[in-house]
Amino acid sequence: MWFIAGFAAIIAGLIMLVRQGGALLNARRTGVLVSKSYGAARIERAADPERFERFLRQRRKGLAAPAIAILAGAGWLAWNFLALAAQG
């Protein structure tokens, strides 16, 4: 029954990865990054390249947490399946 937590962690990590990764890819493609803060400021690559790259680096760093969640969920799931196999 504990293996459900592994599935949930993998699904949550994938959802976060798609949301963050989609915004990152869209910003790279269009050259416009929309801030997630109140008021949703637009940062354009052509107008302010240093600020755009800084915010893009922060978005890339934000992809680490979903990747860790996916890996932790996969590890938890594998551990539980191995425990089930060892019992029966």
Structure notes:
The protein is mainly alpha-helical. Helix content is 74%, strand content 7%. It has helices spanning 3-30, 49-61, 64-87, and strands at residues 32-34, 42-44.
Q: What is the fold's blueprint, element by element?
A:
Layout: H1 3-30, E1 32-34, E2 42-44, H2 49-61, H3 64-87
Antiparallel strand pairs: 1-2
Based on the model shown, name its key terms.
mainly alpha, two-stranded antiparallel ribbon, 3 helices, 2 strands
In short:
By secondary structure, the chain is mainly alpha-helical.
For the report, how would you describe the main beta sheet? Answer: 2 strands, antiparallel
Adjacency order of strands in the biggest sheet: 1-2
Terminal-residue CA separation: 15 Å
Strand segment count: 2
Mean pLDDT: 91
Binned strand content: 5-15%
Helix percent reads over 70%
Describe the global form.
Answer: rod-shaped
